[in-house]
UniProtKB/TrEMBL annotation, chains A, B:
Signal peptide: none annotated. SUPFAM superfamilies: MCP/YpsA-like, Winged helix' DNA-binding domain. Residues 348-407 form the DprA winged helix domain. Residues 331-350 are annotated as: Disordered. Pfam families: DNA_processg_A, WHD_DprA. It comes from the Bacteria. PANTHER family: PROTEIN SMF. This is DNA-processing protein DprA.
Length: 414, 414
């Protein structure tokens, strides 16, 4: 596609995006670029994510659409974390064959038809937790329903196997209803089995529930949950990073799971066999440093074996009722979305509230200007090296501290 | 009792003890003293334990029988850990009213009649793990059956509630039979419910099983388990620190639990409600640093709520089958007592067994010779900095790693 084609496409997208974004006029070009990028790349493409972090979405989309070589970007991408020339060339080979302006226009028309809205980083309804995904964060989110539901707080992801037993469904109903009673929003994947039962119980209890899909939000998947997903969108939200028209694939299911784990304050696996996809969501939650719970079941039931594995090998906390699940997000203040400025101040605030006394002492001993070594921290805090290292690890995971050349610094609230 | 009374008593005890001890001639006076002390003190009496640690059993028994005042011992008890004059006076007030030489003689006669043997510290059949109880270690052990069964290794305590469900009994049968298949001896408390089921399944599988009682071994308790305890004694052992004739009391049940936890290589709670006495055994195991496992069950079953509490609050490892239970004592070399000196090699081994997968990966990436930096560990393990630091903190706390000039090293086992 040549420059003229790109400009015409952008003009049309700009018009269409005005229809699908609430108050979108602010930054149409970024929005257009993110829509284009979302159409050509698979979810979680880290090379694209690092390019966007370095160049911005608009310049990244422009380069992809232009057909120019990687060498033209080398000067612009001098940061250590930026993709290499080789990565860009390989990326272009993935992305450029997918440029299809007719399909993109159809996707946007379809989004407008089903009333899907585009939510972008920096919007009040953009989950601050996505920032923890780094270069694997989504570029944009398509949402049907109430987009503020996506940032309802506190929230807990309730996930589990499609092949649920009566026991698992009982656990899911009790968990979702009990959490709704405690003001917690329920995030899940809209699938058969545990996911669907958790969504249904949340709706029945009058709560907010959010389903993340692995394909476009124009076509609800699975088909048997069309009515359920419609009810979820009626009071909560159905969301996806995939553009309308995109079909779910195995890869997209796995990547969808990272959005469930990153947007929720904690993840609880209610019932899962050892091969359940919900263990992938649990893995994302653990990697992101989110609290992870697992509900035990009879050791005679293979349907609970995945939960037991999480308890044994992944340090999941054993949770047996909604009160214990709610404790996983204790300290996360409920409140209307947008009350606090979104972004890292919000998440830093949350992180600060959840600090242990060890973490607080180590944080207080750090400066934003001068780095301190572990030895200096041991002397300054009067703590042993083990607790100091443990606290640094936790603070690092919440983004409150950063490693410097010869030690550690406190990160400035951004 | 005066000195003359004591001497006559000792003479008679000496004769009787020859009948009840295998090769007892070695140290009759110490044996006599321990029998006397066991008859006047309750199990786990720490003041008596510290007196015996300081003065020896013979002098301690002599002082109690003599009726002398605490001031006469003050010079002899100069060690910091020895009981104070006030503690001795209070102790004497507990112990001396119980001196009853006729009852003691009857107890020994009864022991001889039922074929009970006296096992003392230092005997090959004395569990080395009792040393971890410090001043609360038992003074002596009365054993019916094969006293070497008491030190069978590896061994695991399988305990649980009297009020067992069909699920719990199923778990107990599978656990005991599977552990016996793996050469593990089964230790328990001989009670109704989980304990009895575990003993029975161990016997049925042809394994070694040991029951610790809360009263004298002359009268099997509970009465309904007389036949079962007889079968246990026929191939394994029934043991108690209480003299023959002593009735079980609530205190003695709780103290009995410490012997189960201390003699076994690990403790597993198979099914227990929140008030089950087996949680007391689990508490002893945790205090002693023994591996502790708990079998989960349905969260809808109050009979499993104690197990879930152990998983949530006491860092018990989730174990779902005999293979996982056997892993709790992996590395504990079977062998007669005294083969290993207890101490740091033993405890490093234990620490190794308790590692998380993160800790294991970090430990494997470290060398005893060359130090590696945190950055190198991040690269070597493929883990993020937070988990690497967390694992280093935990490994540092257990003494498995040490900080070096420019990084970390694995510590040599001592």
């Amino acid at each position: 596609m040549n420059r003229g084609g790109l400009e015409r496409l952008v003009d049309r997208l700009r018009e269409d995006l005005i229809a699908v974004r609430p108050g979108a006029a602010g930054a149409p070009h970024d929005a257009v670029a993110r829509v284009v990028l979302g159409a050509v790349a698979e979810p979680g493409d880290g090379v694209l994510g690092r390019m966007v972090e370095s160049l911005g979405a608009a310049e990244s989309a422009g380069w992809i659409l232009s057909g120019r070589g990687a060498t033209e970007l080398v000067d612009a991408l001098r940061q250590e974390s930026a993709p290499s020339s080789r990565e860009l060339t390989a990326g272009a080979a993935r992305w450029r064959p997918r440029i299809d302006d007719a399909a993109l226009a159809r996707s946007l028309a379809q989004a407008a038809r089903v009333g899907a809205r585009l939510v972008l980083p920096g919007d009040p309804d953009w989950p601050v937790g996505f920032a923890d995904l780094g270069p694997h964060a989504p570029l944009a989110l398509w949402v049907r329903g109430r987009s503020s539901a996506v940032v309802a707080s506190p929230s807990i992801a309730l996930v589990g196997a499609r092949a649920a037993t009566g026991y698992g469904e009982h656990v899911a109903v009790e968990a979702a209803a009990g959490l709704v009673d405690r003001g917690v929003a329920i995030v899940s994947g809209g699938a058969y089995g545990i996911d669907g039962t958790a969504h249904r119980a949340a709706l029945a209890a009058g709560g907010t529930t959010v389903a993340f899909l692995a394909g476009g939000v124009d076509r609800f998947y699975p088909a048997g949950h069309e009515a359920l997903l419609g009810r979820i969108a009626a009071t909560g939200a159905v969301a996806s990073e995939l553009p309308c028209g995109a079909a779910p694939t195995r890869w997209r299911f796995l990547q969808r799971n990272r959005l469930i784990a990153a947007s929720a304050g904690a993840t609880v696996v209610l019932e899962a066999g050892v091969r359940s996809g919900s263990l992938n969501t649990a893995g994302h939650a653990a990697t992101l440093g989110r609290p992870l719970g697992a509900v035990p079941g009879p050791v005679t039931s293979p349907a609970s074996a995945g939960c037991h594995r999480l308890l044994r090998e992944f340090d999941a906390l054993c949770v047996t009722d909604a009160a214990q699940m709610a404790e996983l997000v204790r300290g996360h203040r409920p409140g209307p979305a947008g009350d606090d400025a979104p972004g890292s101040t919000h998440s830093s605030q949350r992180a600060l509230e959840a600090l242990t006394s060890h973490e607080r002492r180590v944080l207080d001993a750090l400066s934003v200007r001068r780095s301190r070594s572990v030895d200096e921290l041991i002397r300054a805090t009067g703590m042993a090296s083990g607790p100091v290292l443990g606290a640094l690890g936790a603070l690092d995971a919440t983004g409150l501290v950063a490693r410097a050349a010869d030690g550690w610094v406190r990160r400035r609230p951004e």
